[in-house]
TrEMBL record:
Keywords: Metal-binding, Zinc, Zinc-finger. Pfam families: zf-dskA_traR. The lineage of its organism: Bacteria, Bacillati, Bacillota, Bacilli, Bacillales. PANTHER family: GENERAL STRESS PROTEIN 16O (PTHR33823:SF4), RNA POLYMERASE-BINDING TRANSCRIPTION FACTOR DKSA-RELATED (PTHR33823). This is Conjugal transfer protein TraR. PROSITE patterns: ZF_DKSA_2 (PS51128). Residues 90-118 form the Zinc finger DksA/TraR C4-type domain.
Length: 187
């Protein structure tokens, strides 16, 4: 056991037990969202053909979000169970990597951690990118107004200024009204 006081150790144990109970209750209440059901069964629709694609997209997004929340809760519960097991074995509060004491402040923040700050496993960002990016044209460098000015493009605010030079329906060439002499000569 680490250099924690018995009261600190007891407080952390109670917090872990409390968090475990909370997570188990959340997971139990989520069991009625069965991930084994097909999308049609889970939405209660007879067919997806009469739905707008955005409606189906929303359902798929909601389902994916629910599954991600479920996985996060399950992972946290596993970490809490592991921490309680380390407490029972007398290994709680020591880093699984280097064996040094984990500071109490860290355990207060993450009572289920098994690592000191220095040896926390890194969660590297996956470098795998979607295959579509191999054939996409990269956007022009720069952003916003500066990019538009550099590319000779305009936004809604500058649109009139850019096309005004080309004339309008009231330009001099279009100002001849029926009944005027010039109009009659051209007809």
């Amino acid at each position: 056991m680490t250099s924690m006081t018995k009261q600190q150790y007891s407080e952390l144990r109670q917090r872990l037990l409390s968090d475990k109970e909370r997570l188990e209750n959340q997971l139990e209440s989520r069991e009625d969202t069965n991930k084994e059901l097909s999308l049609r069964d889970s939405t209660g629709e007879l067919s997806a053909a009469d739905n707008h694609p955005a409606d189906v997209g929303t359902e798929v997004f909601e389902r994916g979000r629910d599954l991600a929340i479920q996985e996060t809760l399950e992972r946290e519960l596993e970490q809490i169970d592991s921490a309680l097991q380390r407490m029972d074995q007398g290994e709680y509060g020591t880093c699984a990597e280097c064996g040094r004491d984990i500071p109490y402040e860290r355990l207060e923040a993450l009572p289920y951690t098994a690592y000191c700050l220095e040896h926390t496993p890194r969660k590297d960002i996956n470098d795998n990118r979607p295959v579509e990016e191999d054939v996409m044209t990269p956007p022009p460098s720069g952003a916003g107004v500066n990019r538009q000015a550099a590319d000779g493009k305009f936004d809604d605010a500058g649109a009139w200024d850019a096309v005004e030079d080309y004339g309008t329906s009231t330009s001099p060439g279009m100002s001849i009204k029926p009944g005027q002499d010039d109009y009659k000569k051209n007809v």
